[in-house]
Amino acid sequence: MSKPFIARGAALLALACQLPGAHAAAGYQALVQRTAYGIPHITASNERNLGYGVGYAYAQDNFCLLAEEIATARGQRSRYFGMSGSYDSPDSEPIPNTLSDFYYAFLNSDQAVGASYNRQPGEVKNLIDGYAAGVNRYLRETGVGSLPTACRNQLWARPLEGLDLIRMMRRYAVTSSGAQFIAALQAAAPPAPGAARQLRLPSAGEPLRGLYGRQRNSRHMGSNAIALGREATQSGAGMLYANPHFPWTGAYRFYEQHLTIPGKVDVMGVSLGGLPLVNIGFNRAVAWTHTVNTSQHFTLFALHLVPGDPLRYVVDGEVKPLKPATVSIVGRDANGAYRTLKHTFYLSELGPIVALPGQLDWDGATAYALADANQANDRLLDAWWRMSQAGSLPALRAVVESTLGLPWVHTLAVDRAGSVYFGDVTVVPNVDKAKQDACVPAAARPLLGQGVMVLDGGSAACRWSNAAGTPQPGIFAARDLPAITRRDFVQNSNDSAWLTNPAQPLTGYPDIVSAAGKELSARTRYGLQEIQARLGGRGWGRFSVAGVQAMGLANRSYYASLLLDDLNGLCRTSGAGQAPADACRVLAGWDGKAELDSVGWPLFQAWREQMNGSGVDYWTQAFDSARPLDTPRGLRIGDPAVAAAARTALFNAVKALKLAGIDYAKPWGDIQVAVRGARQIPIHGGGGEDTYNVIESSPLGNGELNPGFGSSFVMTVSFETGMPRAQAFLTYSQSSNPDSPHYGDQTERFSRKQWISLPYTQGEIRRDPAYSFRWLRE
Known about the structure:
Distance between the termini: 34 Å
Shape: globular
Number of strands: 32
Radius of gyration: 27 Å
Low-confidence stretches: 1-15, 20-25, 214-219
Strand order of the largest sheet: 21-19-18-10-9-8-7-2-1-32
Number of helices: 19
């Protein structure tokens, strides 16, 4: 060992020894160590100092990103980015700045944010306040004129306050509820006097229009997760595979970090932007991850209006008013002039009024109120902070189920001893099956399939029920939500809790919580079939770390395994001109994968999109709830109508790809590339919910596709040595700053499938070739 290394280690130990003696009166102090790929390991004596180190480190890598997202959560995009601008939501749907600002100014009013902050535990307040101080330390040191190009000398590159993190928390909380109604909230205006009384709801199969969010967009946030117990691993220890599918840009980008308060917490993983803790990760005893769940976190209430008065409604004969609430924002027009803009929301006792013109109208008879369960959920930060400290799987489960603070995600976890846990335990309106049957009007029942429940607002009996022991009224208690602990495995890929483990189906829950018997996604079927094949003794046996990593990044098109042979057969039997010969040739040679050297993936995807849009029922075997892993399957080419639709779809797929400038005869790695400055990094994996390794891309305009969503933090954790051993990729890399050396370094490793070992112990951290440290004090 070199003398410089010994000296460096001695200096670190001397600094670390000061931690227990740190006092609030001394200001802030934290130790920030960095290892390869820019991963910070932050050590401090308490939450206040830890938050300080976390905020400083995050700002070093992503200050511009954070500053813009804080402006969004404050309702200030129109002021800084112009009234005519827009931005991408988490689902890559552009949201106009003015609509966004009115919504977040309404959601994050000073009164609501202040009350939410006051309800936080002291430890969380200290994390928040320290984080803001750390970000502001970075801003003072750097100066607005020396910030990264994206925000240099910009008015929105401003200091933070602790309340800004509450604004971000509240923004994250309503991702799968209120944020879906940003436009619908602002489309709600009282009808003109004498407006017609009507009740027009979408018919069965008619999609709702004008909603943002995962339930109406195939490019939704999702994830894969597998927790393997002692009966499923070669070592007999617990093992976790985590693969959240999240946006590659914006607030929902994950950030890798390792947080330590000696004797209290030692957790490593990733967090969302602006959160001073770990959302997905591991400590010395447990590892956990999340997948977006199918539970509904809001309902609508159909209010019965007083005839001739659209601002009053009736509940059990009692007349109640709709109260106006006017919100002001400041916007900048095309000439640079600032204007004050106002919008009035209308509030019922159940929530604000929403409208989808032509579908859910505020007319002379009915108005629709949005009741958002997560708008009152102040417990997100407390839940994740306490999970980070869990010393056992039962302790982690107790945190999840007692806080009831996780907003819209399943939890899958594993411990050293090889027990696994699945919990679909989130904030869900308490509407049981009996209440659903009694209170959902017949005309609104088709909307249940789109994840929207409309209840009768004219009856108090149709309000959400209260359950004993819940931290907020009107939600299900944890004891009434799906959860299991096992010794073999649990898995989820954004389907309901139903077949988390087919040996123990989770059934009997209300639809608003978890529906059973529905068709499974390709990712769920692939995952379950691979797990069962290995554990069922098909020659593979139990899982090793390498085995689960290979499964996760196999890039196999699951739909190709169901349809490609029949499609190729159709090509072979088609006459001249009946099918495009070049496309048939490419599909015949395709390996059925979305690997870098695969040729044919975009063509198959385009064909399947065309088939799905044709309206033709093309499956040979339809879905059968008694055989959910085997159905649907097969292309019914013996049916002339299906054969004709399949040929037409192939012609249309070729046309669509040519129009987009995509050469489907090129290797996939030449088409899908992550642009990092002058570098173009080929990216494997594919979209359309077909591969386990989901990567959704958008055209660059030059025949290439740029990834913008999908596999984000891909991680395996194993306890086979007693200590956690983690390997991972942050697919888009640690920094959003193009000038950072950590703007694309992990992206290149992901491209090559070269897993990165995460240093966790102090010995591993200090031995890292890229090791550096800085002691922060103020």
